Amino acid sequence: MQLTANDVDRFEAARPRLEAIAYRLLGSAGEAEDAVQETFLRWQAADVDQVRVHEAWLTKVLTNLCLNQLGSARARRETYVGQWLPEPLLDGDPMLGPADTAEQRDSVSYAVLTLMERLSPNERAVYVLREAFEYPHREIAEILDLTEAASQQIFHRAKKHIADGKARTEIDEATARRIVEEFLAAATSGRTEPLVRLLTEDAVSIGDGGGKALARAKAVEGALAVAKFMRGLFKPGKAKRTLVGGSPEVYVTTANGGPALVAVVDSRVIGVMCLEIAAEGIAAVRNQVNPDKLERVTERWAAADHGEPLLISF
């Protein structure tokens, strides 16, 4: 049916929240935008005058679209080339959603988005709606067609799964920058010892190239192995410059609320390396180089003031 200007405005007012929910559920900015657009089409086809609570209706439609998407995504990821990582977002991106509480910030951290891949679609939906958006279990139950008791049980189970796998600790921006600078200096020193000292004993390195950019097919595990891998990754070489189309400029930044490095060639982001910090050191290095998952970052990077690069690599 034909929407009135007021109906469209009501949807547009809800769009930022819907995109933030969809991004957390899907781990992909592009898929989140598609899910929100499909929600708008459902809104356009509905008899909106009969919708009593518009926010609840839109959230229910979006969440169920995302649940369907998660089901098919699991099948697609069985044939995904190499390791799968979420799409990183630079701080300030509205799709990151609310960041007023530690729980909200944590729910969109790169580490937690990666851990959420282990959850069932229902666990992921309950966790996101409760932890990040503070929906009461009564409303979550209505959205997901559950009982309130089931929603509570699913949430506690999901939260335990996340807590069991999470090493990240909250650090301030100055400390994050210092850690990243130390990591970069150690990685480019040509020696493994400085890197080993910065890493936890069970540190892991994961890269996602999606078959479209060079990335190791399996995770690298252990401080010494990660240190050797990083030393090789940052070692200059003509073949590397040819592969990426030039000498990357490397910047220190914040992505998904955590410390990160961004590699840029001719204003195009070719990689975002997110560091997961634990009390004992750097617990994980996750490097997103799949160009399909760097389009939004590239757009926002081009429009932002990012200062001078810390390093011109290769």
List the helices and strands and how they pair.
Blueprint: H1 5-26, H2 29-45, H3 54-77, H4 102-107, H5 110-115, H6 121-132, H7 137-144, H8 148-165, H9 173-187, H10 193-198, E1 199-208, E2 220-221, H11 223-233, H12 238-244, E3 249-255, E4 258-265, E5 268-278, E6 281-288, H13 295-302, E7 311-312
Parallel strand pairs: 1-6
Antiparallel strand pairs: 1-2, 3-4, 3-7, 4-5, 5-6
Helix pairs in contact: 1-2, 1-3, 2-3, 3-7, 6-8, 7-8
Architecture overview:
The structure is a single chain. This protein has two domains: 5-165, Butyryl-CoA Dehydrogenase, subunit A, domain 3; 173-312, Nuclear Transport Factor 2, Chain: A (Roll). It is an alpha+beta fold. The chain has a seven-stranded mixed beta sheet, with helices on both faces. The protein has helices at 5-26, 29-45, 54-77, 102-107, 110-115, 121-132, 137-144, 148-165, 173-187, 193-198, 223-233, 238-244, 295-302; strands spanning 199-208, 220-221, 249-255, 258-265, 268-278, 281-288, 311-312. The longest helix has 24 residues, at 54-77. The protein is globular and about 65 Å long. The model has no long low-confidence stretch (mean pLDDT 91). The chain contains 13 helices and seven strands.
Shape: globular
Oligomer: single chain
The chain-level mean pLDDT equals: 91
| Low-confidence regions | none
Q: SSE order in H/E notation?
A: HHHHHHHHHHEEHHEEEEHE
Percent helix among the residues?
Answer: 40-55%
User: How many distinct helices?
Assistant: 13
Number of DSSP-assigned strands? 7
Distance between the termini: 57 Å
The largest sheet is: 7 strands, mixed
Per CATH, the superfamily of the largest domain is: PhyR, sigma-like (SL) domain
Instruction: Give the domain tally.
Output: 2
Instruction: Give the CATH topology of the largest domain.
Output: Butyryl-CoA Dehydrogenase, subunit A, domain 3
Task: Describe the strand arrangement of the main beta sheet, using strand numbers.
Answer: 2-1-6-5-4-3-7
